[in-house]
Amino acid sequence: VGDRFQHVVDVEATAAEAPALAAGLTRWLVELGVIELAPAERALGGPGHPPGPEAARATGGAGAPASLHTNGVAVVSTRTVFDGGPDDGSARCPRCAEDVGWDVLGPAVDEWWAGGEGVRPCPGCGAPGPLNGWRWEPAWAFGCLGLTFWNWPPLSADFVREIGERLGHRCVSVHGGR
Ligand SMILES: [Zn+2]
């Protein structure tokens, strides 16, 4: 693994509202000084906003990201699987720990890509399983809005909570590497 990243994913925003929410979130992060306004070649697979003068605010004093080339923040506002790594995940039920197979997950993920909910009952206990409810390994989150911080020190829990409060939605954090 050469590059580490952390996604902060809004798991409630709809595809329709994501672009406007992403623009507002970006403006706010620029105002705080956490990121710079103009995206540059600072992320893998697309542009990223370089860290701003107050980048350490996001890391709870753990410092600013190292001055690597890949240290930007990508803003994503389309339907995306925010995965923790390149490999396919496996999922367990949070209630009964049943290993949920891809015979169940595959069609659910396809349905979600097509704009549906992708909810399936757990094969073990029958509890309704939304895609973001399974325990994924490595961690995965399904959403239409997210930020990917490349090679930043771990974001503080307070900062992640602040993003969720600003959006008015539940946000989850996914760590991974490429
Ligand atoms: Zn179960």
Task: Characterise the protein shown here.
With 178 residues, the protein is an alpha+beta fold. Helices cover 21% and strands 29% of the residues. The protein has a 4-stranded antiparallel β-sheet. The longest helix is centred in the first third of the chain and has 15 residues, at 18-32. It binds zinc ion (ZN).
Task: Write a concise keyword list for the protein shown above.
3 helices; 178 residues; 21% helix; four-stranded antiparallel sheet; three-stranded antiparallel sheet; 29% strand; alpha+beta
Strand content: 25-35%
Task: Please give the number of β-strands.
Answer: 13
Shape, per Cα inertia axes: globular
| Rg over CA atoms | 17 Å
Largest sheet: 4 strands, antiparallel
Derived from helix and strand composition plus strand pairing, the structural class reads: alpha+beta
Kindly report the spatial arrangement of strands forming the biggest sheet.
4-12-1-13
Low-confidence stretches: none
Alpha plus pi helix count: 3
What integer is the average pLDDT?
93
| Amino- and carboxy-terminal Cα gap | 5 Å
List cofactors, ions and other ligands: zinc ion
Tell me the series of helices and strands, N- to C-terminal: EHEEEEEEHEEEEEHE
Helix content range = 10-25%
Q: What is the subunit organization of this protein?
A: single chain
